[in-house]
Amino acid sequence: MQIPAISPIHDADLAARLDHRIDDKTKPQGSLGVLERLARQIGLIQRSERPVVAKPAIVVCAGDHGVTAEGISAYPQSVTWQMVENFLAGGAAINVFAQQNGCALHIVDAGVNHEFGERAGLVASKIAPGTRNFCTGPAMSEAECARALEAGMQFVDGLDCDVLGFGEMGIGNTTAAAALMASLTGIAVRDCVGAGTGLDQKGIAHKAEVVERALRLHAGAQAPLARLAAFGGFEIAFIAGAMLGGAQRRMVLLVDGFIVTSALLVAAAVQPAVLDYCVFSHCSDEAGHRRMLDHLGARALMQLDLRLGEGTGGALALPLLRAAVNFLERMATFSSASVSEKNG
Question: Example GO biological process term (predicted)?
Answer without folding.
Answer: cobalamin biosynthetic process
